[in-house]
Amino acid sequence: MNIKYKDEDKLLILEITEEIDHHTTEKIRRLADYEIQRRSPKRVIFDFNSVVFMDSAGIGMVIGRYKTASMIGAKMEMINVRESIRKIFEMTGVLKIIPVVKEEILVEENV
Amino acid sequence: MKKMCDNEMTLEFLSKSCNESFARITVAAFAAALDPTIEELADIKTAVSEVVTNSIIHAYDSSDEIIKIHCKIIDNEIIIEISDTGKGIEDIEQARKPLYTSKAELERSGMGFTIIESFMDDVKIESIVDIGTKVTMKKIIKKDDFSENEDTYNFLNKGE
Hints:
The structure holds two protein chains of two kinds.
Chain A: E1 2-6, E2 11-15, H1 22-39, E3 43-47, H2 57-71, E4 75-79, H3 83-92, H4 94-97
Chain B: E1 7-14, H1 19-31, H2 38-59, E2 66-74, E3 77-84, H3 92-96, H4 112-119, E4 122-128, E5 132-140, H5 150-157
Antiparallel strand pairs in B: 1-2, 2-3, 3-5, 4-5
Helix pairs in contact in B: 1-2, 2-4
């Protein structure tokens, strides 16, 4: 996972760099929770640009991180979600609580 | 009589979570002979991943048990049979329900079977407690009918 943080915006971007299944979620979960708790961001963004595969394990994973973020008052969004993955999120109504936003509004470079 | 393109394969592997990706990639490679679209292939991979994960999480307590996959290609259909010899499912109707999970502590969403059913064309679950579970799924790979595919038809008939 690549981690970017912009201090002045209190923006934490977590770029997932692997396929998301039951096997990989454990590690993603641990790292993401650690970063969210450590940085106390106002806004957390999951970047799915490098995620080519996700099964239902991803649903529990993002909802779990949404809970972690909510506890510290941060909002959560997702970017670069490809169609096959969006389909899975749509089936469960995840997108109503964690919306997919356009990439342009983000910081232009790594921090 | 079997057609030339009909095919069959069997796969056996340990109930380790790292085999979830091995299983879906292998089945996808086998299904590739049917020339599926990227979307159809993604559906197959997701369904295989869901079933194999269920066997790993729910059927077995240890990671040295066997999960078996048997695949058949008949005409333009792929039939995928995934079986374990684990605990079995007591109440299949309940397990099929969206958002039902017996493993909420593992952040499981309970959407596995719902996803399988919406991505595949036919799903059958057979299970006997303490004997095991077998999930049989079918995916029909839609073939473009040549005469119905206007663009290709027009393209090939140009310049005649």
